[in-house]
Design a protein that fits this description.
The protein is mainly α. Helices cover 78% and strands 0% of the residues. It contains 16 helices and no strands. α12 runs antiparallel to α13 and α14 runs antiparallel to α15.
């Protein structure tokens, strides 16, 4: 196995455990809550703390990749992540348990924020332009499968062993990633003149944190409450001031000027809108199977296999299609198929059965698989090597914000229509409410299709922008 494939395996493993931890905990949460005595707010923060920390710090992780080198930043991130995972698993069943596990989840999110932007940049840098689609299909495709397989794995580990093993699973994966990177020894490239100063870091972290926190808490506080509106306003003002300052800075913390490149902006917008719908669909499909159909966590995970297998299969096709034809054909086809799948899936939900959902799950998975790796590959392939860590940080920040906003907005729609899945012993009413949430997710996919049609580049990358002339037009 050549060194570049060792790099790919290490990066794929790291991203897989990052995405896995977004959904695997939801199934283990009831057992965790009973043992640690978590409050209702504590349960929410076990899930939210991870996403909040990652969203607030991922763009900074991209800049640290420039300052310290991608490999060094990756190693630090992996180490923080698996040590924090150990700490989660050792949370004491005492009065300290709730504060302990929430703090450990914040550290997990910080480690993930360091790993994510540099891992994608390292994969792109390890492969030639002609091979990047195939490599990123493995990187993004397999990782996306782990996002969907989280409830199954969480159910198996929780029922068969303990909820603590959900976190300890990250330790051998993290150690293996460090070993593979050591053996492969990819170039640890640093960018000359990359500086990190306190003021923009504070503005970015506080702005993203306030915005995400307001969205996360809106379901509890209410979208029109002074707390939600005030915190959201503070976050948006801080982010607006940060963007203005970065546009004027000769050495920006985050080069927001990259969003001025139409092709890069298109990839970012499509990914953000797709993530808006996808994460909420995964969470609410698990709720539907367990609460409304009475399945165990393990069986609900097994029933998600049509979605998972379709994502894995289509991801490989999407990567090869990108190498051959560029970004538009696989992404537009993927969004169109995914939209059709979500609509078919939504229409099947009121039947309160599983079999009718399978065609929609398969179509949704095929669409996701086709579009995920081409958009990631194209976004990073459109910038110079020196900008890839920052570009990846921007992509991942938008994806995290999109997913967080989607869960909050779609969750508010579902709860507003029903009052909580299964509430009052009315499964049919709950199914109708979740159906409405799925239609909202489909609407986000339609917006992604419109944005992609208008903005995605018709040029297929044939050379690395760092190595020579601009991308050659095809067709």
């Amino acid at each position: 196995m050549s060194q570049r494939w060792l790099v790919l395996v290490a990066m794929t493993g790291s991203l897989s455990m990052i995405l896995l931890d977004q959904t695997v905990v939801t199934v283990a949460l009831p057992s965790m809550s009973r043992e640690l005595g978590l409050s209702a707010g504590g349960e929410q923060w076990v899930v939210n703390a991870y996403v909040l920390a990652m969203a607030a710090l991922v763009a900074l992780g991209g800049k640290l990749g420039d300052r310290l080198g991608g490999v060094t930043t990756f190693r630090i991130g992996v180490t923080v992540f698996f040590l924090a995972s150990l700490a989660c698993g050792f949370a004491p069943a005492t009065d300290l348990g709730e504060a302990w596990i929430i703090a450990a989840r914040v550290l997990q999110g910080a480690g993930a924020a360091l790993m994510t932007p540099v891992s994608a940049a390292l994969v792109i840098g390890a492969f030639s332009v002609a091979e990047r689609g195939r490599a990123m299909a493995v990187y993004a495709g397999i990782s996306q499968v782990f996002l969907a397989v989280g409830p199954l794995l969480g159910g198996v580990l929780t029922e068969a062993v303990s909820w603590r093993t959900v976190f300890w699973l990250n330790v051998p994966v993290g150690v293996a990633a460090l070993v593979l990177v050591h053996v492969a020894h990819p170039a640890d490239v640093r960018t000359d003149g990359a500086r990190i100063t306190a003021a923009p870091v504070a503005g970015l972290v506080l702005g993203v944190a306030a915005t995400v926190l307001a969205v996360q808490q809106a379901g509890t506080w209410g979208w029109t409450s002074p707390a939600t509106a005030g915190l959201l306003a503070v976050g948006l003002v801080l982010l607006g001031a940060f963007v203005v300052a970065q546009l004027r800075s000769p050495s920006p913390l985050v080069d927001v000027r990259l969003l001025g490149r139409r092709a890069f902006l298109a990839d970012v917008v499509v990914l953000g809108l797709v993530q808006f719908g996808l994460l909420a669909v995964i969470l609410y499909s698990s709720i539907y199977l367990q609460v409304l159909l009475g399945m165990s966590p393990m069986l609900a995970g097994v029933c998600a296999l049509p979605l998972i297998v379709a994502i894995a299969a289509a991801a490989q096709l999407g990567g090869r299609w990108y190498d051959a034809a560029g970004v538009r054909p696989p992404v537009l086809t993927g969004v169109l198929v995914g939209t059709a799948g979500l609509l078919a899936w939504a229409v099947s939900l009121p039947t309160l059965g599983y079999g009718a959902q399978v065609p929609g799950m398969v179509l949704t998975g095929l669409g996701i698989g086709l579009l995920m790796s081409p958009t990631n590959t194209d976004a990073l392939g459109r910038v110079d090597a020196a900008d890839r860590s920052q570009a990846s940080g921007i992509v991942q920040t938008v994806r995290q914000l999109g997913g967080t906003l989607g869960v909050a907005v779609i969750g508010a729609v579902v709860l507003g229509a029903e009052g909580g899945p299964g509430a009052g012993g009315r499964p049919q009413h709950a199914a109708d409410a979740i159906t409405l949430g799925f239609f909202c997710a489909a609407a986000a996919f339609v917006l992604a299709l419109v944005a992609g049609t208008a903005l995605l580049s018709r040029e297929r990358l044939t050379v690395d922008p760092s190595a020579g002339p601009a991308p050659a037009a095809v067709g």
